[in-house]
Amino acid sequence: MMAYRLHSFQLTYFPAKPDQWVEIFKTHLSDETFREIYPFYHRMIVNQSQFVTESDKQAMNGEMPFQKKKG
After folding, report:
1. What is the rounded (10 degree) CA torsion for 16, 6, 64, 48?
2. pTM of the model
3. Distance of alpha carbon 39 from its chain centroid, rounded?
4. DSSP the chain
5. How many CA atoms lie within 13 A of 36 on its CB side?
6. DSSP assignment of 52-71, as one string?
7. What is the pLDDT of residues 40-62, one digit of tens each?
8. Terminal alpha carbon distance of the chain
């Protein structure tokens, strides 16, 4: 989440785009493939606000994603 925000993606991007991706997947993927990947995207959609909260906490603590800890 933070990586997207560091690249100037707005928070309004996140609720809209995964929903759109899911609709595209439904149209262009087989039912079997869609059923395999949908849980991942569903989790992203329903937990979006939690991901934002966590990335805000990391930013406030000066943490960056995948940043190596010193020491």
Report:
1. -10
2. 0.58
3. 13
4. -HHHHHTT--TTHHHHHHHHHHHHHHHHS-HHHHHHHHHHHHHHHHTHHHHHHHHHHHHHTT--TTPPPP-
5. 5
6. HHHHHHHHHTT--TTPPPP-
7. 999 988 888 887 777 777 777 77
8. 26
Closest residue by Cα to residue 12 from 43, 38, 49: 49
C-alpha separations of 51 from 7, 44, 45 in Å: 16, 8, 10
Cα 29 versus chain centre, distance: 21
Using alpha carbons, select from 11, 7, 18, 12 the residue that is nearest to residue 64: 7
